[in-house]
Amino acid sequence: MAVGEFKWPGVLPVDGIRLAAVQAGVRYADRLDMSLIEICDGASVSAVFTKNAFCAEPVKICRRHLQQATPRFLLINSGNANACTGQAGWQAAIDSCAAVASAAGVELNQVLPFSTGVIGEVLPAARLVDAVPTALEQLNGDAWHGAAQAMMTTDTRAKGLSKTLEIGGVELHFSAIAKGSGMIKPNMGTMLAYVATDAAIEQNLLDKLVKSAANKSFNRITVDGDTSTNDALVLMASGKAGNTLICSGTDAAERVEQVLTELCQALAIEMVRDAEGATKCVRVDVAGGLNAQESLDVAYAICHSPLVKTALFASDPNWGRIVAAIGYAGIEELDCTKVQVWLDDVAIVADGGRAPSYREEVGQAVFDRAEFSIRVDLGRGDAKESLWTSDLSHDYVRINAEYRS
Fold first, then answer.
1. Percentage of residues in the chain having pLDDT higher than 70
2. Distance (Å, rounded) from C-alpha 390 to C-alpha 375?
3. Pairing state of beta strands 232-237 and 44-49?
């Protein structure tokens, strides 16, 4: 189940980036479950990862390898998260990286491992090792769809997108794939996402761009309030477009940041639309906070409320659940008489009480939609923030109850 339809858009090749997707049999037979991304020599790479203290062994290795060398390969598997697996899990990830490094003729620290799937089980490294030669043989610039499929766990559809941007007469290409459906809550990103461009971008700027893009997109979605152990967002810049090097503080840098943010935000929203068991995708806008954290606190309270989420699933405009969440969000000295709330453009709360113009049937019409917004004005200041969330359905419970079956 997912909200709306997502037709694969035909993700554009990026010069300097090649991909492959193969069947390694990590957990299931006869399905794509391992992908390999090759990054050309001379590229720049940056990444951000989960802040979960129980981060997976591959995340630990990625952080170490990024400090030591510029990556040439990304090795990604689904079906097994290799998280909370200790030294055995670490060695399994290292062995998988070593197979790629040996076969491709690069250093071990130039291979980054990524895993997604069941927590607490050691990665069956031998299956990945056996699949590496086939993956290397199949590398090509058009395998974005297969690579996106190979990352899927409870996702119902592969997610990818491309954008182009012209700077100084040079057309730059930006392509991305992502996976994420459950265990989604911001604290760096709660998913796996890989973004590539053929633009030449200085390393310091790339480091800023990956953080900015994450904060404005993947760090603004929440499905169930659970931060994954394996989250990663990787930004690759091959430099093959032949453009003048893009540096911080320039108009070109601002334009690239805007495109990357739009690209990542679109994929992040697709994750919410494809959330486990989702029938709704709802944007929660909170304005009027004294600062950004106040606005985020209120937005999270609404998005994480089981009562709000079940009302969304039932298409029940029980707006009392929304104001209750606002009230317990922890905003000190909140003046409820200044709080305003809307469903899309329908006023439901004004001056701390039910809006005089509100009628149940009008609220019902909004809640019947698959996608709509809940807008709040706290009447305290100028800060505003937005989050996207899904409903809590029977299928969400079933999917997670049967996840290891």
1. 93
2. 15
3. antiparallel
Relative to beta strand 371-377, strand 340-343 is antiparallel
**Considering 190, 197, 222, 227, which one is annotated as catalytic?**
190
Query: How do the domains of the chain map onto residue ranges?
Result: 17-273, 281-401
CB 164 within 8 A of CB 174: yes
Strand pairing category for 232-237 and 192-197 = parallel
383-390 β-sheet, strand order: 221-222, 383-390, 281-289, 371-377, 340-343, 346-350, 353-354
User: How far is the C-alpha of 116 from the C-alpha of 92, rounded, in Å?
Assistant: 14
Question: Is the per-residue pLDDT at 17 higher than 90?
Answer: yes
pLDDT for 66-88, tens place per residue? 999 999 999 999 999 999 899 99
Contacts of 52 (CB under 8 A, 6+ apart): 187, 227, 228, 229, 231
Domain 17-273 CATH class label: alpha beta
CA-nearest of 320, 294, 293, 295 to 308 is 320
pTM over 0.85: yes
**pLDDT single digits (tens) 310-331:** 999 999 999 999 999 999 999 9
Measured in whole angstroms, how far is the alpha carbon of residue 334 from the centre of its chain? 32
Task: Report residue 396's pLDDT band, with 50, 70 and 90 as the boundaries.
Answer: low
Non-local CB neighbours of 118 within 8 Å, separated by 6+ positions: 27, 79, 80, 81, 403, 404
Residue 153 a catalytic site member: no
Q: How many CB atoms lie within 10 A of CB 337?
A: 10
Cβ neighbours, 10 Å, residue 286: 28
Backbone torsions φ then ψ of 151, nearest 5 degrees: -90, -15
DSSP string, 277-324: T-S-EEEEEEEEESSHHHHHHHHHHHHH-HHHHHHHHHT---THHHHH
Q: What is the pLDDT of residues 133-148, one digit of tens each?
A: 999 999 999 999 999 9
Q: What is the CATH number of domain 281-401?
A: 3.10.20.340
